[in-house]
Amino acid sequence: MRASVFASVALFAASALGGVLSPSPVEGRELKISRCDVSSATLPLPAPGTTAIAAPNVSVAKPKFIAVGLGVQNYTCNAATGTYTSAGAVASLFDISCLASSPLFPHIQDIAFALDQAGPIAAKTLEAILGAVCLKLGDHYFVTSPSGTGISPKFDFTKSMHDSNAFVLAARAGGVAAPNTAEDVDWLQLSNVQGALAKFVYRVQTKGGQPAKTCAGTEFSSVPYAAQYWLTAVSGFYA
Known about the structure:
Layout: H1 2-17, E1 62-78, E2 83-95, H2 108-117, H3 120-132, E3 136-144, E4 151-156, H4 158-161, E5 167-176, E6 187-194, E7 200-208, E8 220-233
Antiparallel strand pairs: 1-2, 1-8, 2-3, 3-4, 4-5, 5-6, 6-7, 7-8
Helix pairs in contact: 1-2, 1-3, 2-3
């Protein structure tokens, strides 16, 4: 299995390194954004009529960034029910916009997840590939909700963009169970609450991230996952 994983990632590396991103000649590993146009890319969604996720109206909000997220979904144990409750997530977001026309594109999250889980050597290979072409756009994590109750997802590109407004704090607008396996976290549509990075964020093509069915004796769990994140923007938002 590992041979096939490394073969796949070699193709992924060739696609990425062959094209459009390169380190800054001054800062070395600082992000140099490719700005590949993904405005006409088609967001993958389950069959019409089976999802609570609304397909983006490209006349209103066109795709601006497509990223692969790699990180963990966090959970705390609800002692009363014996099941896990979501406690947010932490992930790094890497630009895959310039690979949108590649035959590997639908599988990038699977490749990244497999390498991340295949052991230290494979994980270092993945880090070297992503770092060599400076693909990191930013980070995804959770913060206290503006209401002061609960937590909200944040997508933070402020460091790579050198812009304090290049973030989006979002709220859930819709979701559906992942169409592939029960081990994958839900596909989601998120809408902007604060920030100028995007109007909507979609989490699709998920891999992993679901907790164990019961949590007796374990208060906290971090479950590895990968996913595609599509950020769509309108005039007046980050472009």
